[in-house]
Write a structure and sequence with these properties.
Length: 307
């Protein structure tokens, strides 16, 4: 059980799992929670006993970034250099948003991050690098210039090294969408790598769609850029999406979920700009425009049906 707990802590540090997944693993068996607490506490005590000057350079661990992301390096590091992973994990600062909430933070280096609904991040900055973990949700990043310390964005899909600029990162079930609004990004996963840059305001913004199998790079559509700008204002924009897709997007911001109850309604196409915190205006528009029936089905959902 101790070995499993060590591996879970290593996977979390490497960005190959999330705290939510870790919680699910721990809660399934009380012995797991006890083992994880024991591992974290032991690594913390080891770190206290060693000064920063006594630690060997990171390169002595001989773990490549690709090997780390692939998992083998993370496990090896957890067994040979567990103190580093324990120290890194325990010294992170983490913040999150609830469903429907947005928050903005200034990071220690002067960079800023804005969190969209149901998002969690953590960060640790030291003398060698700036590292931020996106564990779930969506975040807009304004990365400050630092010639000595690279800025690394870590997710379960891979690692992105970001130059000074503006970026938007969103974790989806199928992968990560990284929009480069200004600046440069170099992304590496287990199976692929890619680099893009936006040198000026006149240059096309770039979007990287990152999955376990590949990285697709393309010019960002204006609708994608508008969507990023909209959520930062507390808005949501639809431009011809089906009602089923629109409801799926709107539900990110709602504790009471909307449910499209028939195929005819699901295939309706709609457009418009709405406030994420005012679903009633969205429902009124659907009733007025399409004549949909809005049925309160209790505390957890609202049904949308054709007339």
């Amino acid at each position: 059980m101790i070995a499993q707990a060590s591996e879970w802590l290593a996977r979390l540090d490497a960005g190959r799992t999330t705290e939510r997944e870790l919680d699910d693993w721990r809660e399934a068996d009380p012995r797991r929670a006890a083992a994880f607490a024991q591992v974290a506490a032991a690594w913390s005590r080891l770190d206290v006993l060693r000064t920063a000057d006594a630690l060997p350079p990171a390169r002595e661990l001989r773990v490549s970034r690709r090997g780390w992301l692939a998992g083998g390096g993370a496990l090896a590091a957890s067994l040979v250099g567990g103190v580093y992973l324990g120290r890194d994990h325990l010294l992170r600062t983490g913040v999150s948003t609830d469903v429907g909430e947005r928050r903005t933070f200034t990071l220690p280096d002067g960079s800023s991050v804005e969190l969209n609904t149901d998002t969690r991040i953590a960060w640790r900055f030291d003398r060698k690098r700036r590292r931020l973990w996106l564990e779930r949700g969506e975040a807009a990043l304004t990365v400050a210039q630092d010639a000595l310390r690279p800025f690394e964005l870590v997710t379960v899909r891979g690692l992105a090294r970001l130059a000074a600029g503006q970026f938007n990162a969103r974790l989806r079930p199928a992968g990560l969408d990284l929009i480069v609004l200004a600046g440069q990004a170099a992304v590496e996963t287990v199976s692929a790598s890619a680099e893009v840059g936006v040198a000026s305001a006149a240059a096309a913004r770039q979007v990287l769609e990152i999955t376990d199998q590949r990285i697709d790079v393309a010019d960002a559509r204006e609708a994608e850029v508008q969507s990023v700008q909209a959520w930062r204002r507390g808005e949501i924009v639809f431009e011809g999406q089906s009602l089923s897709a629109a409801v799926e997007e709107y539900n990110r911001y709602l504790t009471r979920k909307l449910v499209v109850d028939d195929t005819r309604a699901a295939n309706l196409r709609l457009g418009g700009r709405f406030l994420t915190g005012d679903p009633d205006s969205f429902l009124r528009a659907l009733r007025t425009t399409f004549g949909l029936r809005i049925i309160d089905d209790g505390s957890s959902r609202i049904l949308l049906k054709s007339p």
